Amino acid sequence: MAWTMPESERAFHEELDAENINPLWVMHANPPERPKLAPYVWRWERMRELAMHAGDLPSLRGQGFRRALTMRNPGLKNPQAGATKTMSAAVQIVWPGEIAEAHRHTAAAIRFVIEGEGAFTVQGGERFRMEEGDLTLTPSWVWHDHNNPQDKPVIWLDCLDAPMVGYLDAMFQEPYPEDVQPVTKPNGYTNAAIGNGLMRANLKDVVGGTLPITYKWNDAYGALLGYGEEDPHDGVVMEYANPVTGGHSMPTLALKLQRLAPNSHGEAHRHTSSVVYHAAKGEGYSVIDGKRLDWAKGDTFVLPSWAVHEHGTDSSDDAVLFSMSDLPLVEAMGLYREEARPRQEVTGAIG
Amino acid sequence: MAWTMPESERAFHEELDAENINPLWVMHANPPERPKLAPYVWRWERMRELAMHAGDLPSLRGQGFRRALTMRNPGLKNPQAGATKTMSAAVQIVWPGEIAEAHRHTAAAIRFVIEGEGAFTVQGGERFRMEEGDLTLTPSWVWHDHNNPQDKPVIWLDCLDAPMVGYLDAMFQEPYPEDVQPVTKPNGYTNAAIGNGLMRANLKDVVGGTLPITYKWNDAYGALLGYGEEDPHDGVVMEYANPVTGGHSMPTLALKLQRLAPNSHGEAHRHTSSVVYHAAKGEGYSVIDGKRLDWAKGDTFVLPSWAVHEHGTDSSDDAVLFSMSDLPLVEAMGLYREEARPRQEVTGAIG
Amino acid sequence: MAWTMPESERAFHEELDAENINPLWVMHANPPERPKLAPYVWRWERMRELAMHAGDLPSLRGQGFRRALTMRNPGLKNPQAGATKTMSAAVQIVWPGEIAEAHRHTAAAIRFVIEGEGAFTVQGGERFRMEEGDLTLTPSWVWHDHNNPQDKPVIWLDCLDAPMVGYLDAMFQEPYPEDVQPVTKPNGYTNAAIGNGLMRANLKDVVGGTLPITYKWNDAYGALLGYGEEDPHDGVVMEYANPVTGGHSMPTLALKLQRLAPNSHGEAHRHTSSVVYHAAKGEGYSVIDGKRLDWAKGDTFVLPSWAVHEHGTDSSDDAVLFSMSDLPLVEAMGLYREEARPRQEVTGAIG
Amino acid sequence: MAWTMPESERAFHEELDAENINPLWVMHANPPERPKLAPYVWRWERMRELAMHAGDLPSLRGQGFRRALTMRNPGLKNPQAGATKTMSAAVQIVWPGEIAEAHRHTAAAIRFVIEGEGAFTVQGGERFRMEEGDLTLTPSWVWHDHNNPQDKPVIWLDCLDAPMVGYLDAMFQEPYPEDVQPVTKPNGYTNAAIGNGLMRANLKDVVGGTLPITYKWNDAYGALLGYGEEDPHDGVVMEYANPVTGGHSMPTLALKLQRLAPNSHGEAHRHTSSVVYHAAKGEGYSVIDGKRLDWAKGDTFVLPSWAVHEHGTDSSDDAVLFSMSDLPLVEAMGLYREEARPRQEVTGAIG
Question: Residue D110: enclosing H or E segment and its boundaries?
Fold first, then answer.
């Protein structure tokens, strides 16, 4: 629709503006430019360097703070933006001997360990010890504190649905009365209550359909190797299962792991959900809306909704991407679409 | 947490910023001021005046545009903001003889007639004729065009979940190949297929769990009178039923009607969902976070999430509020909270 | 599989039998004849005569009994059989001035009035007054008593899922401490709480997903006339809607009404659910597994699972069948199948 | 209600009987005695002896039959009865070199290996190899054939929901065109597709919400040991998880494993679901309606719905019961009840 406001109607438009009214036809005829989620990559080498710096900042010592470097999507032109409009992602370092104080919030969180081992999160009175490649879920409103009793730092990817929760103005946060919560359950209790996926105890403590569980790297990566069936777009891809509901990993987030075979290149497609990818193993590349983004272990990057994309690796080793998306929300609203696309011509690079 | 950045760490913070990184501890210690949804009212007298003006704008004649005056929440400081962060609301006028061209979009819409009768929306090949107080649903991705064959304008409240859909970057829009779609079903077909709520045909054309149906004012208001049981906060309140799922009116929107008895005043509460209210009958007032907002038939106003509120009327007649909220989305994310509150002291006014 | 037990193995088979063991191969090779649900009709003229007799039996006076004539399927060869294996059906007469005492049971019941008006069932403290053609639901474990304050008898079809409940050994029954329960709600309360299907109050008293509601004949039959779209097999057919769940009328029973146009004949099909039909208006016929069954208003007949059937009427008036089936249970077990079949040749008659 | 038919009404009752009608008041006043599910035990020692005999019956050689000894509940007084009214249970022997021909049926089946190893069931083109203590699911309508390529017999407990399916007259059975179906998938494919419970591939071949999967004994028993939390009635008890739905193991059957600690005795309760128990490890006893039933590994016994029961063991070793119940059906109908009871006095023995 081509439409231009005649000079004679300007006064009326100013009247509308004064009443906090937008005329719909103007927005339709001249859709405003809006900040747009950018495909973008945060490189591990640099993030690690900055994290190590943050890990020992004098001003933070003994404060109980989370030393988290929160990725800000540059496309959104918003100083408080997350990695995408719906999800935050941070590289968090837990310094040797450090405690990140206990609190809870309505935002749900996940942690994927990038480097180190032996740090643990206490959730619902249970210690979740984590090693490289492990994933731990922190459902909404569960008390949690972090502790690193080892002598080396532990670094993990720390992601939340906080932007969604903030979008709905439903963020609540509460500090625990003490620095740390008491440990009341044996290690591994929650994973045991679901027979690590296979058996089911009577689950009385289910939190909104999500349990605070840990998926070990060996189990998750091993499952990809064991299954082996290739998706045309995503290599061998599996979702971290929600054992309670049979649905997505969390009510707001879909968490997946995908393995690209050595020297493989998937087909292109696009879908209505945005994704935070994190390279968990090896190296490869993604082509996003015609731009090539090379990635290697530890890198984190963002795929906007409906951007055409394909993944591949030129390595003689396999490559594994961990990913988190807002798919459950898109589906709950009945808005999921997916479309296969022809192989893209590469016209530039990202990062 | 009180924390101030020491001068010695400034360089590091600038380094982070250059990498599109926000240090989490800064955001926690010094939470930034963000634009905040404002309680606000658009008065009918003024909206009607502006709508009548918009109805006959020379530049729009014969263009097939929607003459919709979209309410922009002043608190959000965003020139494209909707009435709330999640919902848009507009006063739309359909001029005598006018056709608003057929199209469809992934955003779902609802229409509540404020003035006039005899205009109709064609949806899925069926004419939905509307009169004052009637509500019509337009589910996601259903073709629809509007037509006013009468000699008087028809004005309705036109609301969409478009901001949510845009938030997820999942808005698709498509014009119909012709100005209008053909009418292939008898009037009243869809409402008849559900026995007006009581009986159920084999529903083959269900669109994402929502049917394009009309709720007549007499049925809806009559249902409030027939039921009569008072909620402590909201008078007699009922939701427009989704006959297909037994759940909310639409997957993204909860639509309700509430009747305040003459000279009544409800108790205060707050909840995590934002609401667009529209006064459908009579006059009354709402107290929102301590500020009194007087309203009368035709006015439209906004309640932010978690704002304490109570409704009442000093009139010897009853008053009826139609409302639309983002409750289904809040529930899908497991974020609904509600809390009774003590009666508020009124310390100011809104509007 | 053709298999005959050799004489040499007889002793072994006797050994098995003594241990309460059946050899599977014998049952497979020589499937035993089992009693089989018969298509069968109970004629209204005769049922009415017997009901009137039962209505004034001296031995029952003042006892608070239900004067119900329970139909026993002759095919099942079981003196306690219901109308089908899963459902019971009875013609019940409520004599003028009579009270059928209050009780409750885990079996769910429905009542469809055949003759008379003004009797009422009290359920959950509310009077449900019934007239000819009205349907009332009594969900599992709801207190109910019947009362006929008029001077003419009222006769209704009284059906339960009791055989299913008995099959699972889950029948519980409890007499109310008094003859009748107190009336605590206004007439029409429950139907009002669901806006007669269209609006929804906050339903605190929902009993297992089913409300004790009444569907008036004029509403139900009117819905068929209003909808008008013909199913190839069943004329215009609609299910009595469950407003709470969007699913079947009751968790165990699907209740439908179907209108056969004057001089119409539907196509044949079969499905895995058994049905109790009751002619609610006019006259017609059904062809069941090649046998013709003529029926007229008031008659009740049975269709076995997977029996081929077609319905028609030679009358210049329309005909209406009310029906009840075990479809929800069949679906819950994942066992529903349906198959269109060619028109049957009629080779005999039923009833 | 005490009521006796007066002689004067006898003729009327005979009239009713002739019309296939039961007067409800007679059934209420004089409830007929009905056959009733009996608690009963089939001893392993004897079953094994009979199975070995059946395994080599001359008349069955090369016929492709299933050599299954189907337990018949003596309480039901029905020559075709299953172990309970709703479930069948058999001891099936697969003779060395034998093939039980491929077929499928609408009844769902499960197999729990009692003795031997190396036999396999082919389902949906995949070999499921089974060892002692393993459980394999065969969902409704999945092709399956059994094969024992080892030189020793394999014996398993073979249970179906066939009585339920027969109750609804919804049993369909179909032989495969060949003796065996082709193997098209690698061993372990289906378990791999669900990451053995923890990860989830895109499941395109889900059969009515149930996958043909195997639960290894070591995984299942190990899960009990790993979890360790005691239920007051059932020791450490877990359900074999349905990874697809988060619900019961199968749409019609709940499958559980429970571990009784050495020298333990659980509290008494009763519930509305009937159970087939099979002793998978050790020895113990159950007290059912006051009668003591001692059991040891390999024994199979039956608990009627609503029978009071408690489990224990006097052994210094633990004992494990595998069980199968009709709980999902009871729940689907809204009929589940459970009640704690005082410890029973033992007044007799079963078996």
Answer: strand D109-115
**Distance from C18 to chain B by nearest Cα, in Å?**
53
With CB atoms and an 8 Å threshold, state whether D195 touches A197.
Answer: yes
DSSP B237: E
SS3 A291: strand
Domain boundaries, chain D: 40-349
**pLDDT value for C41:** 98
Query: Quick one: pLDDT band at residue C317, thresholds 50, 70, 90?
Result: very high
D206 touches chain A (CB under 8 A): no
Sole residue written with tokens 């963002």: A302
Asked if residue B314 lies in contact with residue B260, where contact means CB atoms within 8 angstroms, the answer is: no
CA A66 to chain centre: 17
Q: A86 vs D1, which has greater pLDDT?
A: A86
Chains B, C: CB pairs < 8 Å: 123
- In this complex, is the C-beta atom of B332 within 8 Å of any C-beta atom belonging to chain A? yes
CA–CA–CA angle B275, B279, B281 (5° rounding): 145
Q: Which helix (H) or strand (E) holds C25?
A: helix C24-29
Q: Tell me the average pLDDT across C191-199.
A: 92
Tokens of D98: 């034998």
Distance from CA of A36 to the nearest CA of D (A): 31
- Read out DSSP for C174-196? EE-SSSSPPP-S-TTHHHHHTGG
C-alpha A230/C-alpha A149 separation (Å) is 41
Chains B and C touch (3+ CB pairs under 8 A): yes
In percent, how much of chain C has pLDDT > 90?
A: 89
Phi, psi of D346 (to 5 degrees): -85, 125
Answer whether D3 sits within 8 Å of C59, measured CB to CB.
Answer: yes
Please indicate whether, in this complex, the C-beta atoms of A330 and B170 are within 8 angstroms of each other.
Answer: yes
Percent of chain C with pLDDT over 70: 99
Testing the interface with C: which of D333, D338, D339 to mutate, by most C Cβ within 10 A? D333
What count of other Cβ atoms lies within 10 Å of the Cβ of residue C176?
15
Give residue-wise pLDDT tens across range B186-201.
999 999 999 989 999 9
B247–C246: do the CB atoms touch at under 8 Å?
yes
How many C-alpha atoms does D179 have within 13 Å on its Cβ side? 10
Q: What angle do CA C348, C349, C351 make, to 5 degrees?
A: 155
Q: Which amino acid is at A343?
A: R
pLDDT tens per residue, range A18-67: 999 999 999 888 888 889 999 999 999 999 999 999 998 999 888 888 99
CA–CA distance, C291 with C276 (Å, rounded to integer): 17
Taking only the tens place, the pLDDT of each residue in B276-313 is: 999 999 999 999 999 999 999 999 999 999 999 999 99
**C-alpha angle C85/C89/C93, rounded to 5°?**
160
Counting as low any pLDDT under 50, the low residues of chain B are none
∠ CA C310-C332-D208, nearest 5°, is: 100
Q: Using CA atoms, how far apart are residues B260 and B277, in angstroms rounded to an integer?
A: 14
Q: What is the pTM of this model?
A: 0.96
- CA nearest to C84, candidates C43, C139, C36: C36
The string of pLDDT tens digits covering residues A199-211 is 999 887 787 789 9
Does the structure show a pLDDT above 60 at A1?
no
Question: Which residues, numbered 134 to 193 in chain D, qualify as contacts with chain A under a Cβ-Cβ cut-off of 8 Å?
Answer: 188, 192-193
Identify from A7, A14, A16, A20 which residue to disrupt to test chain B contact, counting B C-beta atoms within 10 A and taking the largest count. Answer: A20
Residue with tokens 């099909």: C269
Mean pLDDT of chain A: 95
Pairs across A and B, CB distance < 8 A: 225
At A267, list the tokens: 């087909």
Interface check D86 vs C, CB under 8 A: yes
Distance CA A254, CA C46 (A): 64
At the fourth CATH level, the homologous superfamily of domain B40-349 is Jelly Rolls (2.60.120.10)
